Amino acid sequence: MTLILASQSASRKMMLEAAGVPFEARSGDVDEGAIKRELIGVPPADIAMILAEAKALAISVAAPGRLVLGGDSLVEVCGRLFDKPVSRENAAEHLAFFSGKDMHLHSAAVLMRDNACVWRHTEYAKLKVRTLSDSFIQSYLHREWPAVSGCVGVFRMEALGVQLFESVEGSHFTVLGMPLLALLGALRAEGELDA
């Protein structure tokens, strides 16, 4: 049976396709904002995991016997958590805040079958944002909006988003939004991929 990706994330789909993992994508009904409001003070990696589990569970309940992948990424800068921007103006505010600071990205993935978690994993990456001028931010958003509207951190590393950073510590796949190497190992362990 084909893996179900509990997401419509373009980057997660791209990673699975490139890795040769057969899957179908479905969206579950999860109120991420409500979950986050209940988790004030909880470490970001734990919040990412809880959200990934909620997404997987939302699909798993209607897909008996199927393996469901849930994922989530959280961006933290100076102790503040950031969501996807709600407008181009909001995106510009985020980028101005990120300018010259360290961005901490927490990426979680969960595999669930029959409403039970069979595997979970989180990874962390640290991205140093270079000093961004107002003119660069506007030019960047002119070229990347609305593509980055669905991206926490307001960047696509596989596109112009790479220009935001001075350095990156951590897995490229984690930065793209999913701990792919660990996930591939888990899929082999679950018999979804050839060992």
Detailed description of the structure:
- The protein has 195 residues and is an alpha/beta fold.
- The chain has a single domain (3-189), classed as Maf protein (Alpha-Beta Complex), CATH 3.90.950.10.
- Helix content is 35%, strand content 26%.
- It has seven helices and seven strands.
- The protein has helices at 10-18, 32-37, 44-60, 88-98, 134-144, 172-176, 180-189; strands spanning 3-5, 23-25, 67-77, 80-82, 102-113, 116-129, 165-169.
- Strands 1, 2, 3, 4, 5, 6 and 7 form a seven-stranded mixed sheet that branches.
- Strand 1, helix 1 (10-18) and strand 2 form a beta-alpha-beta unit.
CATH topology, by name, is Maf protein
Q: Report the C-alpha radius of gyration, rounded.
A: 17 Å
Question: Mean pLDDT across all residues, rounded?
Answer: 96
CATH class: Alpha Beta
Number of helices: 7
Kindly give the count of domains.
Answer: 1
Helix content percent band: 25-40%
Strand and helix order: EHEHHEEHEEHEHH
Strand coverage percent: 25-35%
Separation, N- and C-terminal Cα atoms: 16 Å
Characterize the largest beta sheet: strand count, sense, and whether it forms a barrel. 7 strands, mixed
Low-confidence stretches: none
By oligomeric state, this entry counts as single chain
